[in-house]
Amino acid sequence: MDQDYISMWQNLGIDLENHDCLLKALADFYQQIYLSQENRPEGMKYFDFVISEAHGLRIKELLEAKKQGKKVIGTFCVYVPEEMILAVKGICVGLCAGAQIGFDEAEKVLPKNTCDLIKAFIGFKLTQVCPYTESCDLLVGETTCDGKKKAYEILDKLTRKVYVMEVPHRKTEAGKELFLKELFNFKEKLEEISGQKMSLETLREGVKIVNEKRKALMRLESLRAHDPVPISGLDALLVEQIAFYDDPIRFTKKVNELCDELEERVKMGVGVKPKGTPRVLITGCPFALPNWKLHHLIEASGAVVVGEESCVGRRYYHTLVPENFNSVKESIKALAERYLNTHCACFTPNTERIEDIKNMAKKLNAQGIIYYSIQFCTPYLFEAYQVEKALNFPFLKIDTNYSTEDVGQIKTRVEAFIETL
């Protein structure tokens, strides 16, 4: 292990013993799931490198930026506008966690019937294994679900740097007005913590950067519509996960380079799976890094995942922000409209999400839909019934957590489902 990294982690207050266990488990898991895949695109080597340096070089970059006066802002949800963080010369990093780390400690402060996504980010903090959390100057929560908003109260007791942004649960005019006001309040908070004024010019720059990133991810998604598929669902998921951590300009460049390679694969008829492989669309809860379980089980069972109607997936990059605004006020309004067009299960009613799933399934030539719920995630568990009833598609519901205890059971169900496609 690089001695500079060890000193860096110590200075951040990382528990080195716990952290070493996490890194070893992640490396073994990554080798087993990712590096064992055959016929991967060459462009994935960059994303392999990012994972190998996720707690090393990227953290070093963040700390160097902090020395230059930049602020690191951590977020847990796609309703927090990354563009606004960039507009105060800040750096945005995602903090959702996808592994069962520190759950024994987390359950001392959280109910046991809390979803694993919440337990994970609290557990990571309590066991001091996340250098991203420790590098942040501000942690931005949101009121998407009851579990998260109460967990943020606990996280603030632990860190004293949590800011919670209210997200309305109805897309009424009153809800839109509330969210717009929240974004103006968020603007003031970002200006206060950064010492930077959010101007028309910096907002245009921030919107441009994030739009280009989303265009690259849209391009990647469109390439998954081909048969044979030029990239595995696992690799596409990894790219989507890294979108929340990597430098956005560098990330966009690397995704476009990957897409250039995939376009050549499409022209040559080269795929990661044989032509005619059953095609699955996943919809539901987010897949926080390193939650790769379901994709791995599906693709190891003889199918290919062609899309994710998820916060780590289409809900992150679904539309762009118009760039023709002429004032700060206009830009904030454009951001509010774009972000409220994200169809999370926290909203009621949420019929637009069903249309999104239908459109994705058609565009990506999916043959079956797997509905993924994290145990105790009430909003997505409730919506599963409505989604299944509204879709004329082969449908499988998977209710699981971050553990590996149910892998055998899920694989059996997935294999039986794939045989029907």
Keywords:
421 residues, globular, alpha/beta, four-stranded parallel β-sheet
Description:
It is built from 19 helices and eight strands. With 421 residues, the protein is α/β, with parallel strands linked by helices. The chain has a domain at 11-43 and 56-192: Rossmann fold. The strands form two sheets. It has a four-stranded parallel sheet with strand order 2-1-3-4, with helices on both faces. Strand 5, helix 14 and strand 6 form a beta-alpha-beta unit. Helix 10 (173-194) crosses helix 16 (328-339) and helix 14 crosses helix 19. The radius of gyration is 21 Å and the shape is globular.
Helix-strand layout with pairing:
Blueprint: H1 3-11, H2 16-33, H3 44-52, H4 57-67, E1 72-75, H5 82-86, E2 91-94, H6 103-106, H7 116-126, H8 131-135, E3 138-142, H9 146-159, E4 162-165, H10 173-194, H11 200-223, H12 233-242, H13 248-268, E5 279-284, H14 293-300, E6 304-309, H15 314-317, H16 328-339, H17 351-363, E7 368-374, H18 378-390, E8 395-400, H19 407-419
Parallel strand pairs: 1-2, 1-3, 3-4, 5-6, 5-7, 7-8
Helix pairs in contact: 3-12, 7-9, 10-16, 11-13, 14-19
